[in-house]
Design goal:
By secondary structure, the protein is α+β, with helices and mostly antiparallel strands. The chain has one helix and five strands, in the order E-E-E-E-E-H. 24% of the residues lie in helices and 43% in strands.
C-alpha cells in the first residue's frame, strides 16, 4: 500500500521545495513536476512531490489524518 501526504509549498529551490506538512517542514524533490509555486499544495510520496492538488482536497485530507491521530490516541 502506498500513502501520499499533502503539504503546502513554502519555498522553492531549483529542483526541491520546502513543504509544510501538519506543522512540520520537510525538503522534498520537485523534479517530477513541471511547475511548483509557493502556496501550492502537493501530494508527497517517498520524499517526492508527485502531483499538485487543490487546496480543498489537501485540507480535507489533512483533517482526516488529524481525526485518525485523535482516534488512535483514545
Amino acid at each position: 500500500m502506498c500513502l501520499g501526504v499533502p503539504g503546502r509549498v513554502v519555498k522553492v529551490l531549483d529542483k526541491t521545495g520546502l513543504v509544510e506538512i501538519m506543522g512540520v517542514s520537510k525538503e522534498v524533490s520537485t523534479e517530477l513536476l513541471k511547475e511548483v509555486k509557493v502556496g501550492d499544495y502537493v501530494l508527497i510520496h517517498a520524499g517526492c512531490a508527485i502531483q499538485v492538488i487543490d487546496e480543498e482536497e489537501a485540507v480535507n485530507t489533512l483533517q482526516l489524518f488529524s481525526e485518525l491521530k485523535e482516534l488512535m490516541n483514545e
